[in-house]
């Protein structure tokens, strides 16, 4: 089965992200116009606008009528408190020195709170034992305080793929797709405020029942079957969520 190629606007957004983060576009300089980007990359205006929308959602650029597009200051771009969900590959935007570490933690049935996200027709997934991983996202090269505690589950029939992935990479879902015979479909995300459980409080080094933001993401394949579920807890003071809503063009 051939892998789905990312839309051209996502590819362009990735190229521009790398250019911004490498310092190619200085914050004091004028960002290329839409026309200039269309000509340079050989793409349509729609593609450019969608790519810029992704970058704006990631807080890499700001766009103001009359003043054009500018690159946001590094303090804004690398805020550890910001997370965007504008696209799959940009679903986590943390500080540049943040590091995620995951480790295998045996096999287990999905906890009831996570099993609720798996539709009833997938009965085998409710009963089966998923590969479980646990880890932390830390800021400061791993020597600083935890930013989040992470618990991830991988579908039983794909557990063998974990032997081929880099567990320190933040894009586990992309690696599973790369090594598996499937493509990514929809992703469901839920954010809720919850008190820290004993396990999460211990992992984060905070008192039990401290307010946390809990993010559950359920990654489905193109057939609509979940293949990865992540359960992430952020201490309330270490996380904020932001999104940009653009008016529709008429």
Automatic annotation (TrEMBL):
<dbReference type="InterPro" id="IPR036388">
    <property type="entry name" value="WH-like_DNA-bd_sf"/>
</dbReference>
<protein>
    <submittedName>
        <fullName>GntR family transcriptional regulator</fullName>
    </submittedName>
</protein>
<dbReference type="InterPro" id="IPR000524">
    <property type="entry name" value="Tscrpt_reg_HTH_GntR"/>
</dbReference>
<dbReference type="InterPro" id="IPR028978">
    <property type="entry name" value="Chorismate_lyase_/UTRA_dom_sf"/>
</dbReference>
<dbReference type="InterPro" id="IPR011663">
    <property type="entry name" value="UTRA"/>
</dbReference>
<dbReference type="Pfam" id="PF00392">
    <property type="entry name" value="GntR"/>
</dbReference>
<feature type="domain" description="HTH gntR-type">
    <location>
        <begin position="6"/>
        <end position="74"/>
    </location>
</feature>
<dbReference type="InterPro" id="IPR036390">
    <property type="entry name" value="WH_DNA-bd_sf"/>
</dbReference>
<dbReference type="InterPro" id="IPR050679">
    <property type="entry name" value="Bact_HTH_transcr_reg"/>
</dbReference>
<dbReference type="Pfam" id="PF07702">
    <property type="entry name" value="UTRA"/>
</dbReference>
<keyword id="KW-0804">Transcription</keyword>
<keyword id="KW-0238">DNA-binding</keyword>
<keyword id="KW-0805">Transcription regulation</keyword>
